[in-house]
Amino acid sequence: MRGALTMPVSGAALLALALLVGAAFLAPGLFWLLLALAAAGAILVLMLRHPVAASAVWLLGVGCTLEMSLGDILGPASYQPIIAAVKGTGLLLAAIAVLRFGPRADRFNPGFAFLAMFAVGLVHGLYPGLTLTESLRSLIGSVAPYAFSFSRLSREWARAIIRVTMLIPSFSVAAGAVLALAGIRPLFVISGGLRLGALSHPAFLGGFALTAIYACLVELYREGNRRLIGLLAVNFAILVLTGARAPLLYGVAVTGLTLAFVPSPAFARRERTGLLLAAAALVPLAIALAGSLTAFRLFNLLDHNADGLSGREQIWAYFERAAATSPWVGWGVGAGNAVIPQTSHVVRVMHTWAAHNEYLRIAVEGGRIGEALLLALFILWATAHTARLPRPERAILRLVFAAFACHAVTDNVLISTSASVLFAFIAAVFARGALEAEAGALSD
């Protein structure tokens, strides 16, 4: 089989080389186009032959937020094309996973809700100023994070994705430090105080660190590898330095509840209690040092604006008014991007037009019906998949979904780049659990 595949690949490579040489001499204007097509073809072949490695590299690229690290070099105009390329590559890898590992019926997949909202939006009419092309682009971006769940995947794929998820924040900080030393990109940004951004934006890096914490917890409870405690601590330190308050709150809540109440044969109660006590001992120290660490955003906010919403209430007012104009079916997928005029005072001050509240955004795009459908699918999807997991993983993942539902009140958890990492990780845990459940059923 491998030899049969190698011969066509070798032949295609020779043909591509011949075309490139011919174009260089006979049609120089076509040379760069053919070179780009040849490179794309070579990458596609590698993805087909090595889907696990390709998915791991892609996920690491997502965690590097190429739209930001490359956007600083290529300019703001490259931001959206890079996001589209990254999410498009994810969809392509999901399709390859279906071909290589086989399909899996995922009848409660949340992506179906966005498809329904898109169809209803076309019938009802899109939000003024929202084009069909923009709505379709938003649809693709909305369903892309859940695409891997339509594949059976493999144990190797799941293992690779979970490991990469745990390491993304550390890699981003290490690579960001290199760029900072080279004078290319700062490691910290100033936004209400110093915030660690590394290769990413602090808010995105905070999201990646939160998912990495979840991954460390799952693997620690599964394997009992004590080195994961150190990695868990590193991810928490990165999360603190990003100044992202909500992710830190939910990371602490999920970790604390897990260590306190979720038993594990691989991680003894005595060790879990010791870890909890050590973490609790850090709280008084952090409070004592807060006054002298106000240069960092998290401590600055805790000292001056602990209960503030960072201006989100000004954004929410726009979405509340838009939702009220079509309360039942909304205005179609992508309407959330058109609610706030990009020339408005709010955008100039906040530097964003995103909702920072997924319930409000979905109310605008799908109305009450679309929002109810999405919530129902999420509940059914999470319940059905976690039911097949080992008991500790089931408890942790359900805590993760509960935290995710709360987090959606103040952040863009469904459409941000960090959502692609979170749901790739969740797909890996679900796939591994399903394979183990099937193997157990066969052995019985």
Provide the helix percentage. Answer: over 70%
Q: From the helix content, strand content and strand pairing, which structural class follows?
A: mainly alpha
Order of helices and strands: HHHHHHHHHEEHHHHHHHHHH
Total helical segments: 19
Poorly predicted spans: 1-7
Please indicate the percent range of residues in DSSP E strands (runs of 2 or more): under 5%
Number of strands: 2
Describe the global form.
globular
State the strand order across the main sheet: 1-2
| Major beta-sheet overview | 2 strands, antiparallel
What integer value in Å does the Rg equal?
23 Å
How far is it from the N-terminal to the C-terminal residue, by CA? 33 Å
Mean pLDDT: 88
How does this model look, in words?
The chain is mainly α and 444 residues long. Helix content is 72%, strand content 1%. The protein is built from 19 helices and two strands. It has a two-stranded antiparallel ribbon. A hairpin with a 3-residue loop joins strand 1 (188-190) and strand 2 (194-196). Helix 9 packs across helix 11 (227-242). The longest helix is centred in the C-terminal third of the chain and has 29 residues, at 358-386. Mean pLDDT is 88; it is low at 1-7.
